[in-house]
Amino acid sequence: MKVDKQWDAKFYDRQHSFVWQFGAQLVEQLSPQTGERILDLGCGTGHLTNEIANLGAIAIGMDSSPTMIAQARESYPQLQFEIADARNLSFVGEFDAVFSNAVLHWITEPEAVVAGVWQSLKPGGRFVAEFGGRGNVAAIIAASYRAIQAAGYPISPADNPWYFPSISEYTTLLEARGFEVTFALLFDRPTPLEDGERGIQNWLEMFARFLDGISAEAKQEIFTAIERELRPQLYRDGTWYADYRRIRIISRKP
Ligand code: BEZ
User: Fold this and answer.
1) How many Å apart are CA 49 and CA 124, to the nearest integer?
2) How many CB atoms lie within 10 A of CB 204?
3) How confident is the model over 74-83, as pLDDT tens digits?
4) Is 136 in the pocket of ligand 1 (CB under 6 A)?
5) pLDDT higher for 192 or 18?
6) Is 81's C-beta closer than 6 angstroms to any atom of ligand 1?
7) How many CA atoms lie within 13 A of 82 on its CB side?
């Protein structure tokens, strides 16, 4: 979920289905129970909201992107989807669980999200989340910065649009709000990208916001330099892999 650029929901669904396919494991850890009210925070095109509903819960999807929500409503007209900003949730004590997959790294005000999740949960409710953790896509970021600089564009660490916390950073934040953290894991999850040779370029086009504003011609040169640098490390047998590192957290509102 991102607040200030329209997502191409169809491109996302077509070329980046790994985002929600990997999320299926997290749904297992959520373990939705029949009749539970569960908020899918940053639901994107709604596939995991639908999986949660299929397990018997009353699942509500929310995302700040109108294009993602439009696609989710088209795919799953039987489910409820809302456009909302995760930094500004208005639910009060409504949910047995808040679930979030591959979203929270987009929000650089994590305190606001944690406060909203807390407010949304019933006492005893759980918060189950996975997103990019400390060191996520480190090789892709480093190669991108080098290529952008070499092409003559200024870029600095401040242009990094993502929040990739360590376990101690994120659990401290949760505990400061009152959550009991019951599970925390930081793990490497090299992620195969779709579309063969074009995989890394598709990923950069979709997600690398620091390339916005660079001309198509210069971007092509930058992509070529990034691919040259990353190929030995992230390309195997016709497939590009993103060097994802996930943080998975389960916590409970007492
Ligand atoms: C991730 O899922 O880790 C991710 C996705 C897009 C940009 C950065 C990280």
Assistant:
1) 21
2) 20
3) 999 999 999 9
4) yes
5) 192
6) no
7) 12
d(C-alpha 218, C-alpha 205), whole Å: 13
Query: Ligand 1 center to residue 132 CA distance, Å?
Result: 6
Is the C-beta atom of 204 inside 6 A of ligand 1? no
Is 203 close to ligand 1, i.e. is its CB under 6 Å away? Answer: no
pTM for the predicted model, two decimal places: 0.92
Q: Which atom of ligand 1 is nearest to the CA of 208?
A: 7
Residue with tokens 């649009």: 161
**Alpha carbons 126 and 116: distance in angstroms, whole number:** 13
pLDDT digits (tens, 9 = 90+) for 99-148: 999 999 999 999 999 999 999 999 999 999 999 999 999 999 999 999 99
Number of the ligand 1 atom closest to the C-alpha atom of 244: 3
Ligand 1 touching residue 18 (CB < 6 A): no
- Per residue in 155-172, pLDDT (tens digit) is 987 888 899 999 999 999
> Tokens 């979920």 belong to which residue?
1
